[in-house]
Automatic annotation (TrEMBL):
Part of the 30S ribosomal subunit. GO terms for biological process: translation. GO terms for molecular function: rRNA binding; structural constituent of ribosome. One of the primary rRNA binding proteins, it binds specifically to the 5'-end of 16S ribosomal RNA. HAMAP family: Ribosomal_uS17_B. This is Small ribosomal subunit protein uS17. It comes from Rubrobacter radiotolerans (Arthrobacter radiotolerans). InterPro entries: NA-bd_OB-fold, Ribosomal_uS17, Ribosomal_uS17_bact/chlr, Ribosomal_uS17_CS. Keywords: Ribonucleoprotein, Ribosomal protein, RNA-binding, rRNA-binding. Residues 1-36, 49-80 are annotated as: Disordered.
Amino acid sequence: MTEEERNPQGNAPSPEASAQESTPPAQTETAEEREVVEDLAAAEDIAESEVAEDLGTAAVKGPAFDQDEGQVQTDTERNRRKERVGLVVSDVSDKTVTVTVETLIRHKKYKKRVRRTKKFMVHDEANAARVGDTVRIIETRPLSKRKRWRLANVISRAE
């Protein structure tokens, strides 16, 4: 378009109009902004690539509802509760047993295997476990001040 077609009355174009026309909208981005856009596009490509799928970082779906995040959670995430096998050392309390779990760890400096023992207060709904039984326990929600585990099953009975 010529100036006469844009302004048929012959008036001089305003400086604002000429400034807007001289800079096309595509050139308003700076070099830094273009780099950021390119980096974001590259990151999206990496996330969608086969490498991300091989690493198991693909999106997960599932029916369980995560109360903390308000998002859907898979069954495998929900079932990743800690399990321990230990020995019942006390069954005095009603619906509660005390289980000792032994673990072997390697000493940082001397590299020797050291036996560590920890006691857990375990919820036993049916009062099935007795002193001396070997049991499997599963982590659960807090049931009291010290009880965060529940009895899964009795592996072997005391002799």
